[in-house]
From TrEMBL:
GO terms for molecular function: aminoacyl-tRNA deacylase activity; metal ion binding; nucleotide binding. Keywords: Metal-binding, Zinc. InterPro entries: Alanyl-tRNA_Editing_Enzymes (IPR051335), Thr/Ala-tRNA-synth_IIc_edit (IPR018163). PANTHER family: ALANYL-TRNA EDITING PROTEIN, ALANYL-TRNA EDITING PROTEIN AARSD1. It comes from Microbacterium esteraromaticum. This is Metal-dependent hydrolase.
């Protein structure tokens, strides 16, 4: 068995393949090739795609695509139950399609499958993910003057607050929620937490102004990949006016920033030890 070939990186939401594996107890179907984007089991920021798989006269409802792996001795592990790191020896990495309900007996290994991910949901999650990355870069820029020591930089050369402080990121349809820990270690690294709290509204305004400028540029956004399987590395890249930026990312994205319409963030520091940044996308009307 070979790793699942995936096509979501180029924006595909439809595809065809052959059923390779069925786990009826777990309601999982694995196909040799899929357009479905799976939720990552180690950093589950973007939900997996939903949609349908058609095999013959049977249509299966896919609740969510997930990461899966099968050992050389045939043991299937799904999601957080996978006991090895991605690419670990002795395991083949797959995309599992979690089916809502039971899998009928007439659907078996070797069946030809037609797969279709929910295109509207995919588009909304892609907008949310691209906006999330832009917001993180705008956040770094807006907080750049609050650092008293040199630290690593982000793709635009600003102090990497995102990389230092982010503890969770959750992509939703047309938005995201990111949490940043503002603890003792960040202050020791040179970050002026008190100065940040005193100028929170100003920082938020800076971020939103920067986001408006970037969206108006209609910059190209794309995913570069080193191969066609689920274990090949992928990276998001965007040709911002300041220069092309990019970093490793396994999610899905828009093709151009004009698809975002408008992006805005709100910063919540109700807990002085925890910054919550909520990003919202208002897509353009057709």
């Amino acid at each position: 068995m070979q790793p699942t070939r995936v096509s979501f990186s180029d924006g595909s939401t439809t595809g065809e393949g052959e059923v390779l594996l069925i786990d009826r107890e777990a309601s999982i179907v694995v196909v040799d090739a899929t357009p479905f984007h799976p939720v990552d089991h180690t950093w589950p920021d973007q939900p997996g795609d939903s949609g349908t798989i058609r095999a013959g006269d049977v249509t299966l409802a896919v609740g969510e695509a997930v990461m899966a792996a099968v050992s050389d001795d045939g043991a299937l592990a799904v999601g957080s139950d996978i006991p090895v790191k991605r690419g670990g020896e002795g395991w083949t990495w797959l995309v599992g399609h979690r089916i809502d309900g039971e899998i009928p007996a007439e659907v078996g290994v070797g069946a030809a499958a037609v797969l279709e991910a929910d295109a509207d949901r995919r588009a909304a999650l892609s907008r949310g993910h691209s906006a999330c990355h832009l917001a993180s870069l705008a956040l770094d820029a807006a907080l750049a003057d609050l650092w008293r020591k040199e630290i690593g930089t982000d793709p635009l050369g600003n102090p990497d607050f995102e990389g230092r402080a982010n503890q969770s990121s959750r992509i939703v349809e047309d938005g995201s929620v990111d949490e940043y820990r503002l603890g003792k270690s960040l202050r020791k690294a040179g970050f002026d937490s008190e100065g940040f709290a005193a100028t929170l509204a100003e920082r938020e305004a800076r971020i939103n102004e920067q986001l408006a400028t970037w969206v108006a540029s209609d910059a190209e956004s794309r995913i570069d990949t080193e191969g066609e399987t689920i274990i090949d590395r992928r990276a998001w890249r965007c040709a911002l006016p300041e220069g092309e930026v990019g970093f490793p990312c396994g999610g899905t994205h828009v093709h151009a920033l004009s698809e975002l319409g408008a992006v805005s963030v709100t910063l919540d520091l109700s807990d002085p030890q925890l910054l919550v940044m909520t990003t919202r996308v208002t897509p353009p009307r057709d």
